[in-house]
Amino acid sequence: MSPMSEIELAVVAEEQDGLVTRPQTRVHLTRKQAEYALKVGRLIVVRWGVYRFAGAPITDRQPLRAALLAAGPNALASHRSAAALWRMPGIVADQPELTVPWPVWTRLPGVTSHQSRYLPDHHRAVHQRFPVTSPARTLGDLSGVVGPALLGRLVDDSLRRHLLVLDDLREVYGVLASRGRRRLTVLRAVLDERLPGFHPGGSPKELDVRRVLVDAGLGEPVPQYQVVAGSTVYLFDFAYPDQKIGLEFNGFDFHSTRSALDHDAARYAALTALGWRILPVTSATPPRTLVNHVRALRALAPSEV
């Protein structure tokens, strides 16, 4: 390689995690230069038609990048690979997983490939410099490979991080279902539990509390319920406003400082003065205890509140 062509190729590789494709090398090198670079180890074969530029470090990003480069310019990281890129919890991408638009098809060793007849621009994204399915499309695709409990957690986590809104997910369900996509029952069940106005809560543990209460037949608590006391707005994680019952999920560091204790005491006084009963919940609260406490409070007549 001439010094100038080597620099130009290195610039291309830098944008692709140290990798280049055979067509990209041909832009900067003659056939003989490319063969010589491979012979002396300046280019190292990663998979057919994809090379690592000499000197580029080996990273855990390269297998997915190499698969995408080998699959062509329209391929997207999808399913578990996309979930890993979006940092969706509980998903492990053991090997690259891609989706290509119909009628293209690709078979690559060590790669799980999918084909889709419907990949509009709003189902595509670029994240961490990877072409990837959008968060909503990723969750729709995962409906075929994970159960409802995990998919629900992934949806709630994505809502909390503002990766999507529920309407995005409903649109994905609608278009995939209309195209005969199978195994969407999991996504349908998750959407049925998340009607308009649904709030994902502040943490996965809060969603566990909600699920315990609903499954026990205690009714749907209102999430993130605001109470105005004078000039201050207080927030309950969950509430039954009709009976002024407020639930708070307290983490391990709750009351860890004097200022936190003082704030909580003032908050408690203001809310109880308004007739609210506050039920603290921690990660150690057994579901049966939680249900019994809420049931006892709700059994009181409104006039006793």
Description:
This protein has 305 residues and is α+β, with helices and mostly antiparallel strands. The chain has helices at 3-14, 22-28, 31-40, 62-71, 79-85, 135-142, 148-160, 166-178, 185-192, 204-215, 258-273, 287-299; strands at 19-21, 43-47, 50-53, 76-77, 97-101, 112-116, 124-127, 130-133, 222-229, 232-240, 245-250, 277-282. The chain has three domains: 3-57, no CATH class; 63-192, no CATH class; 204-304, VSR Endonuclease (Endonuclease, Chain A), CATH 3.40.960.10.
Task: For this entry, give a set of tags.
42% helix, 3 domains, four-stranded mixed beta sheet, three-stranded antiparallel beta sheet, Endonuclease, Chain A, alpha+beta, 305 residues, 12 strands
What is the number of independent domains? 3
CA-based shape:
elongated
> By helix and strand content, what is the structural category?
alpha+beta
- Uncertain segments are 251-260
* Distance N to C terminus: 83 Å
Number of strands: 12
**What is the average per-residue confidence, as pLDDT, rounded to a whole number?**
85
For the report, how would you describe the main beta sheet? 4 strands, mixed
* Helix-strand sequence: HEHHEEHEHEEEEHHHHHEEEHEH
Q: Kindly report the spatial arrangement of strands forming the biggest sheet.
A: 9-10-11-12
| Tally of individual helices | 12
> Measured on Cα atoms, how large is the radius of gyration?
27 Å
Helicity range? 40-55%
**Percentage of β-strand residues:** 15-25%
